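Entry 14. Ran structure prediction on the chain below.
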Amino acid sequence: MPANEGQLAYHAGFRNHVVTEALPHALPKGQNSPQRCPYGLYAEQLSGTAFTAPRRQNLRSWLYRIRPSVTQSAYRELSLGCIATTPFDSFVADPNQMRWDPLPLPSAPTDFVEGLYTLCANGNASKQIGIGVHLYACNRNMEKRFLYNADGELLIVPQQTALLIRTELGVLEVSPGEIVVVPRGIKFQVQIGESDTAARGYICENYGQPFELPELGPIGANGLANSRDFLSPCAYFEDLQGEFELLAKFAGKLWACRLDHSPLDVVAWHGNYAPYKYDLSLFNTVNTVSFDHCDPSIFTVLTSASATPGTANCDFVIFPPRWMVAENTFRPPWFHRNIMSEYMGLIYGVYDAKAKGFVPGGSSLHNCMSPHGPDAETFKKASSIELEPQYQGNTLAFMFESRYVFRPTETALKAEFRQRDYVDVWRGLKSNFNPNTR
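Output, structure tokens:
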């Protein structure tokens, strides 16, 4: 039985070099791969970047485990279900504005992997550019099944029900209003608690550069997401033998192999390549205190760089509770067309640019240069309301914004929960122009 059985323990700091052990002195002294490791463990390095990546970008951890990862059977290919990975050129990129209701919760027993549903994606996973956007809806635990993703890191955004993410480097509990990132290649298992509980949420599968904190520029040293509020797990292990299944998402396909032991057998580890969680309520929001809008980039929590400086492979942006005080200003988001493509979801509450139709668990997609903005009802109200300081509370929306155009999947385009009349929300925007009246 592990020394920290049942405990949730964390190290603070974004990509700090963590040193953690579940048994005393399990980490070798002075070197990473001694001739014989303590407790008869095996040393295994897990690299999230090339060996030759610059020091400040180099990601790797040393794991000291009961059995090395190579002790497994051969892989066999599985059905993908509703999971898709780019490139899929057979799906047409669409300039239409799109919106979906929440993904229905399953009635049959469905675990996290079985409940994955790809809505859209861009780029090319094999070339490590772009992202995939998935929904999940599940109602049972992954029992003797584990998963790792070789195509990208997973940014998981719970919308309904907390998740327990059991990884080979430790355990994280994440609730709606928090996020968790599981880096590329790390094995994990998702549990949701009681059997009558259903969970739902969103996932960004980041094929590109790992997420990092955005530069603050003129904001200065403080603001947005603070490094110290990111939490990585302490070492946790289980020494279990039996029949287990390890799934691998690799090159857009799903594979499975057999294990005769639980892969969560890392007794100690050190490094800066590890899963982490973040409480979105700790985001230090920056906004205007005079007039007009700052660009929504001020709400960026994490960013994945592309080859073009300042133009992201993916930005993870949130719209949290905040004070609205701008004078003589149309306060909801303005009408705009954007070089970036935007996928948006709602975790809870009401989004201030939509009067109705965009509900928690729902989604919207506005591709490159497709016009969008507040619906007719919101525009009318915001144009005439008396402007006083207002607390925009009970709301938490987010956006996956990417330089690459999203291609919706065929299943998403044909889904019963797609709102095919979404474009009608702007139908009431009539001309108010009068050349004789300013």
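DSSP finds two helices and 28 strands in the chain. Will compare against last week's run tomorrow.
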